[in-house]
């Protein structure tokens, strides 16, 4: 709600002189991280949109100028909002976020080797790129940094004393990284193995992210996945191998610890009930991980079996896992996972249709 106010100076003057901030306050550091993060998509989208003009200065400076103008306008409007404060620090953070977005857009074009033909931006496989974004979101969400040295020490101690042999997490991680290699290849990455090594940095980066902590199995599985991609990743039927491996890993993870009890638990028919009952910091990476696992399984298996057959296969496997989970302690059985597979199929069909229209 806005209200009329008599200001002591012009809104721009007030904005440029509003530097009150306590950098020792963790809340201030948290706000800085958030304000940088929320403008990264703006800078990235603007950079990708402006590549058609083939002017490096325009591609870099225009997104930053757009973020600056938008942020300054929002901050000055907040002078007329009772519950908000105008802050030059937020303006600087948003400008940095726009700049990081430009950098992210440049990296994106290097990963997927985006060519420019006319006014449209094209990638080799939009579905593969979307799945890779789900993978990165799964690894890095919620993107908020850990600012406590005590928390870092606790995470490192948990890692050092963690189990070195965890078969299920290792199998799942290896299958996921093998699939990532195939997705990078389909997206147009010039050197998928090199980019897998770059993405491996995201695993130790979890030490510095709130509510995330890598395990030894994450590193072991990633190394095995990279080895699998180096050995089998260029074979003619590599997609089939990667899809079957990922679907098998999902099955093993869903049925662990392989202990079945007598009376079954109730099956939940309300979609996304379990996710909605979970804290959002935990629910979103869980959802991103499922989108990647189920989506990548369908995407990889369809290369040889077709979209509908691959979707039916993944959906039936997920439905079977959910049915068996009614008798496995510690699991919640619901309709969400099979439904996600169907929804992902519809998304892939829509992306394929859009890709065909651009050719």
What do these coordinates show?
With 359 residues, the chain is mostly helical. The protein folds into 2 domains: 11-121, no CATH class; 126-358, no CATH class. Helix content is 67%, strand content 1%. The protein has 15 helices and 2 strands. The protein has helices at residues 11-16, 26-37, 40-50, 56-77, 88-112, 126-140, 149-160, 167-187, 192-199, 216-232, 238-255, 273-276, 280-305, 307-325, 336-358; strands at 116-117, 120-121. Strands 1-2 form a two-stranded antiparallel ribbon. β1 and β2 (120-121) form a beta hairpin. The chain is globular, with a radius of gyration of 23 Å. Mean pLDDT is 84; it is low at 117-123.
Keywords:
single chain; 359 residues; mainly alpha; 2 domains; two-stranded antiparallel sheet; 15 helices; 67% helix; globular
Topology:
Blueprint (H helix, E strand, L loop, with lengths): L10 H6 L9 H12 L2 H11 L5 H22 L10 H25 L3 E2 L2 E2 L4 H15 L8 H12 L6 H21 L4 H8 L16 H17 L5 H18 L17 H4 L3 H26 L1 H19 L10 H23 L1
Antiparallel strand pairs: 1-2
Helix pairs in contact: 2-5, 3-4, 3-5, 4-5, 6-8, 6-13, 8-9, 8-10, 8-11, 8-13, 11-13, 11-14, 13-14, 13-15, 14-15
The outline comes out as globular
Question: Numbering strands along the chain, what is their spatial order in the largest sheet?
Answer: 1-2
**Helix percentage range:** 55-70%
Output the radius of gyration: 23 Å
Mean pLDDT value: 84
Strand/helix succession: HHHHHEEHHHHHHHHHH
Largest sheet: 2 strands, antiparallel
In terms of structural class, how would the helical and strand content be classed?
Answer: mainly alpha
Number of domains: 2
Taking pLDDT < 50 over at least 5 consecutive residues as the criterion, the unreliable ranges are 117-123
**Number of helices, counting only DSSP H or I runs of 4 residues or more:** 15
Give the terminus-to-terminus CA distance.
47 Å
**Count of individual beta strands:** 2
Strand content: under 5%
